[in-house]
């Protein structure tokens, strides 16, 4: 099943999953706080536009999108280090994409 992971669980699929989640979160935000769909968009930290509740909502939405778009189960919200400022996973769309591609505990749904 290694090939299946390569086919469906790739950077493009992950970015699509994140962008779909951004669309969902943006519906709840006033226009001036909405996130751009760009790899350099800041998600968390001083430059981010999301509060902690919106960040969790984004992560849950990404998990759901990864399942429907990439056919993988990734439980990001249970990973304590995702919220760690030191590892910077939530800094930008790019850092989050990298975090997901290198994440342990990914289950391929066949």
Keywords:
single chain, 110 residues, mainly alpha, 4 helices, 2 strands, globular
- Report the average pLDDT across residues: 85
Order of helices and strands: HHHEHE
Largest sheet: 2 strands, antiparallel
Uncertain segments: 1-6
What is the percent of helical residues?
40-55%
Number of helices: 4
Strand order of the largest sheet: 1-2
**Oligomeric state of the chains present here:** single chain
Distance from N terminus to C terminus (CA atoms, Å) equals 9 Å
Which percent band covers the strand fraction?
under 5%
Structural class: mainly alpha
Please tell me how large the radius of gyration is: 13 Å
Shape call: globular
The overall strand count is: 2
What this model shows, in words?
The protein starts with a helix and ends with a strand. The protein is mainly α. It has helices at residues 2-8, 11-26, 52-70, 93-101, and strands at 72-73, 107-108. Helices cover 46% and strands 4% of the residues. Strands 1-2 form a two-stranded antiparallel sheet.
Summarize this, please?
The protein has 110 residues and is mainly alpha-helical.
Topology of helices and strands:
Layout: H1 2-8, H2 11-26, H3 52-70, E1 72-73, H4 93-101, E2 107-108
């Amino acid at each position: 099943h290694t090939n299946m992971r390569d086919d469906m669980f790739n950077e493009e699929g992950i970015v699509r999953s994140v962008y779909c989640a951004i669309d969902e979160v943006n519906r709840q935000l006033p226009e001036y706080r909405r996130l751009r769909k760009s790899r350099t968009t800041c998600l968390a930290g001083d430059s981010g536009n999301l509060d902690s509740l919106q960040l969790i909502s984004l992560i849950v939405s990404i998990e759901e999108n990864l399942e429907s778009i990439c056919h993988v189960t990734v439980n990001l919200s249970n990973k304590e280090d995702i919220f760690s400022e030191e590892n910077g996973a939530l800094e930008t769309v790019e850092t989050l994409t990298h975090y997901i591609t290198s994440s342990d505990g990914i289950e391929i749904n066949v």
